[in-house]
Amino acid sequence: MRNIEARRGMNDEFDVGGRLKTLRQQAGLSQRQLAERAGVPHGQISMIETGRSSPSVASLRRILGGLGITMSAFFAPDEAPAQRVFFRAGELTDLTGQLGDGVAIAQVGDALAHGLQILSETYAPGADTGEAMLDHEANEGGIVVAGEIEVSVGGERAVLGPGDAYLFDSRAPHRFRNIGDTPARIISACTPPYL
């Protein structure tokens, strides 16, 4: 599984465990109650909150589902976002910081306000969304802009290169994996927002 070592910016470390604990307590849930809601082992919540473990993307998404929040809400600053039209490269919202083994995901603006999530995704050689397939209520598509990425959707699998694209119902189990020796970059969209 790929682990999250999230950070809000280049120099500011993001405390995944502390943020999770704060949100869990605000929801009035014990660690055990959140674990039951999310369908994860009780010990996993404790390990994350105390900083002894970093969750995979799939695990964090499952845990946040137990709280009824998205990853973008989890990683977003607490201040209300301004309604903006244009975003410079350094102004994208870092949803995951750097995922262990080289997955980085950044979002354009306030996805929930627009009902559309636009992402810049980068997968280092060997990077993977995890052995556990992802699935969620949405539709998603993307275009590979650099490198190669293996995309598995349901029973189908393809290796896509620059200019190649995908579009599918996200309820189908899916996975992204860079099997090449150079970084892969994708520009993707998802509606309604998932992360």
Automatic annotation (TrEMBL):
InterPro entries: Cro/C1-type_HTH, Cupin_2, Lambda_DNA-bd_dom_sf, RmlC-like_jellyroll, RmlC_Cupin_sf, TransReg_Diox_bact_type. It comes from Sinisalibacter aestuarii. This is Transcriptional regulator. Transmembrane segments: none annotated. Keywords: DNA-binding. PROSITE patterns: HTH_CROC1 (PS50943). Gene3D superfamilies: Jelly Rolls (2.60.120.10), lambda repressor-like DNA-binding domains (1.10.260.40). Residues 20-74 form the HTH cro/C1-type domain.
